[in-house]
Design goal:
Layout (H helix, E strand, L loop, with lengths): L13 H10 L5 H17 L8 H22 L12 H8 L3 H22 L22 H13 L38 H11 L6 H18 L8 H19 L4 H15 L7 H33 L5 E6 L3 H12 L4 E7 L6 H10 L4 E5 L3 H4 L5 E5 L2 E2 L5 E4 L2 H10 L4 E4 L19 E2 L2 H4 L31 E2 L1 E4 L6 E4 L2 E3 L4 H8 L5
Parallel strand pairs: 1-2, 1-4, 2-3, 4-7, 7-11
Antiparallel strand pairs: 5-6, 6-10, 8-9, 11-12
Length: 523
């Protein structure tokens, strides 16, 4: 303005205000009028200082901001975001500002808004930072996401599972039904090889169960895919082969949700493909990828199991009573190795519906002459007083030490913890994941609900009798009734004494350190 008032903002002298407005008379027309009136009133009253109205003070400030924005734009500096004003006077001052000042002010407002959104965690992610992506397997209740996924699957002639009535807490997860027509109308082609089609059906019908068995079968099928691959003309193998693997993985994930170890194996194979030199011959490149698959199978699974068995066998002493739950191939190998070393111990096999997986463990241990006791999960409190050690397997272990395993594992660990019994979890490090789990609702697998209501044993053969009808006959037609068959639960690290890995016996707190070492992290 032409003259400063008593309410002049700090840091702005009258001379500075005069020079500023003189350099930008058009940008402060309204402000100049208010300032002239104030100067006339001041000259008439002598030393008395007039009291400016709120509109006059705001006009002075807006004129100063407009002049400052024009000066900064000329110097190439980024101006600050101007404060919002709701009065008509300030709006007129902003409207009367020159185009350069208005443009710089709008840019300043946009920049400040983006910075504020980034600081508050809202809006678009900052460039250079990866946006967190929710896996498609956890968006079953999102119609747009499912429509997008359906288009991708349709290109490969893969059926998409239809939406089912689910329990509210698990509505975001897919429900896997064994009799879903996964391969009806599909043609065996280069997109989905025959070996992958067969493997997917084995997954869907639980012919192949267990994290290690499923991962080993996946590696064998991918070796066949790589061996049969032929690079198209004018294509680069390392790029085209990775594209060819996407529908294969999508089909297997549709048959049954892939486990953490399987996902880590696929990442390892994709990394090996991406690191292929572009000028390497096709035959040599295929041999390198196949050798990486074999190396992962040998080092991460087979050799790791041998080391875990050695560590676990040393923890079993004479006279111990080992309690285990369901069926873990790694736990079974530990018990067999301890028996072969002539250690005298007894095993309590705890089982649960609906799959009764502990029966397979029981039969193999009995065939070797190991004394065994078989109970259901509901009777664990009656035998826990005899137990000296609880030994169980795991499907995956999160970065915070949480163990995901067959549903019921957490209950066994909880009962053992309350009775001061050590709980040991045998697991390979290739099942470790950087994901943090705090509950079993977000990431889980929902199996066929008909298994839960049926009284027919999974290993029974022949036609079921009338007495073996489902407990909830015609439950699908009953309103307000939903059946959920949860596959996994999570066990907090406070219930677990040690993890038996190929690196030795480690606490759950060391999982994040192992993940950093495996990813090449350097302090």
């Amino acid at each position: 303005m032409a003259e400063a008032s008593p309410q002049q903002p700090s840091g702005s002298s009258p001379d500075h205000a005069c020079s500023t407005i003189a350099s930008n008379p058009a940008g402060a027309a309204d402000s100049g009028a208010a300032g002239a009136a104030a100067a006339a009133a001041a000259s008439e009253s002598g030393k008395s200082k007039p009291k400016l109205t709120k509109a006059e003070r705001r006009a002075i400030q807006e004129g100063q901001r407009a002049a400052k924005a024009q000066r900064q734009a000329a110097e190439g500096k980024q101006p600050r975001k101007p404060q919002a004003s709701g009065s008509a006077t300030s709006g007129a001052a902003a409207a009367s500002a020159p185009p350069a000042a208005a443009t710089s002010s709008s840019k300043s407002a946009s920049t400040a808004a983006q910075a504020s959104a980034a600081a508050s965690g809202k809006g678009q992610p900052t460039r250079g930072k990866s946006e967190h992506r929710i896996p498609m397997s956890m968006q079953a209740d999102d119609a747009k996401a499912q429509a997008k996924a359906g288009k991708v699957l349709a290109k490969s002639q893969i059926y998409q599972r239809p939406p089912e009535d689910r329990v509210q807490f698990f509505s975001h997860l897919h429900q896997y039904l064994r009799d879903f027509p996964l391969t009806d109308g599909m043609q065996i082609n280069a997109t989905i090889p025959e070996a992958i089609l067969r493997l997917g059906l084995q997954y869907a019908h639980y012919t192949i169960c267990g994290a290690n068995s499923r991962c080993i079968a996946l590696l064998a099928a991918l070796k066949t895919v790589v061996a049969d691959y032929v690079t198209p003309p004018e294509k680069e193998m390392r790029r085209d082969l990775e594209v060819k693997l996407k529908p294969v993985i999508g089909y297997l994930n549709t048959c049954r949700l892939l486990g953490t170890g399987m996902g880590n194996a696929i990442k390892h194979i994709k990394l090996a493909i991406a690191q292929l030199p572009p000028d390497m011959p096709e035959s040599e490149a295929k041999e390198r990828v196949i050798s990486e698959i074999d190396r992962f199978h040998s080092e991460k699974i087979m050799m790791a199991d041998v080391a875990i068995v050695q560590y676990g066998e040393a923890l079993i002493k004479k006279g111990d009573v080992i309690l285990t739950f369901a069926n873990s191939s790694l736990v079974k190998d530990i018990l067999v190795a301890a028996h072969k070393s002539e250690t005298q111990f007894r095993v309590i096999v705890v089982d649960s519906r609906p799959r009764y997986e502990g029966l397979s463990m029981l039969k193999e241990l009995q065939a070797l002459g190991i004394p065994c006791t078989y109970i259901l999960l509901t009777a664990i409190s009656y035998v826990i007083g005899q137990v000296t050690t609880v030994l169980m397997g795991a499907a995956s272990i999160a970065a915070n030490g949480t163990v995901m395993s067959r549903c019921g594992t957490s209950q066994v660990a909880n009962v053992a913890k309350r009775n001061n019994i050590p709980v040991l979890i045998a697991c390979e490090t290739y099942k470790f994941t950087e994901r943090v789990l705090i509950d079993a609702f977000i990431a889980n697998e929902i199996s066929d609900p008909r298994d839960l209501v049926s009284t027919v044993h999974p290993e029974s053969t022949g036609t079921p009798s009338p007495e073996q009808r489902p407990l909830l006959d015609k439950w699908e037609e009953t309103q307000n009734l939903s059946v959920v068959n949860i596959m996994y639960d999570i066990t907090p690290p406070v219930f677990i004494t040690h993890l038996i890995t190929e690196l030795g016996c480690i606490p759950c707190d060391s999982v994040s350190a192992v993940l950093r070492v495996q990813s090449g992290y350097q302090m």
